[in-house]
Amino acid sequence: MISIYSNALAIPSQRRGAILPSRSNIKKMEQNRTQINKDRILKALESSLGVITTALKATDLSRTNFYKWLKEDEEFAAKVEEIENIQQDFIKSKYYECVKDKVPSVVIHAAKTRLGWNETNKVDLTSGNEKIKINIDLRD
Questions:
Q1: Which residues are within 8 A (CB) of 107 and not within 5 positions of it... i.e. 6 or more apart?
Q2: What is the DSSP string of 74-121?
Q3: How far apart are CA 51 and CA 83, in angstroms?
Q4: Which residues are within 8 A (CB) of 132 and not within 5 positions of it... i.e. 6 or more apart?
């Protein structure tokens, strides 16, 4: 007699002779998947110059997992930090290119931030432990 219920249609755990993965194998598979995802996000971070949102969108991974890995995995965190260093170096190189090319707004910014050429004057009003008393007469 032929059964209309084929063994091929059964849920894997219900098939005769089906071998289920052990808990340790399941854990290894999860660890492998996590490592693959970490590698994917690192590659995406490199290509986006460290822009996390862009990398997460490209890999379809969650921000929660990214920050969890960053907190719990020192090796992953070190790789992310290296990508951030590359990002900063890239930005600096473009900044100095603009200064070299005499882009006015960048030259002004460099003069203010790098050389301290600000339009404002800073006044130091410290007097040790004594109170500072300032009297201002606003009458003409």
A1: 99
A2: HHHHHHHHHHHHHHHHHHHHHHHHHHHTT-HHHHHHHHHHHS---SS-
A3: 10
A4: 125
Q: Enter the pTM of the model.
A: 0.63
* Rounded distance between C-alpha atoms, residue 23 and residue 96, angstroms: 55
Joined tokens for residue 137: 């007469």
Residue with tokens 């399941």: 26
d(CA 131, CA 52): 48
Residues with Cβ within 8 Å of 66's Cβ and at least 6 positions away in sequence, in order, are: 41, 52, 56
Q: Are 41 and 56 in contact (CB under 8 A)?
A: yes
Can you tell me whether residue 17 is helix, strand or coil?
coil
In the block, which residue shows the tokens 């090796």? 75
Q: Cα–Cα distance between 116 and 123 in angstroms, integer?
A: 15
With a CB cutoff of 8 Å and minimum separation 6, the contacts of 90 are 49
Residues 79-138 have pLDDT tens digits of 999 999 999 999 999 999 999 999 999 999 888 888 878 776 666 667 777 777 777 878
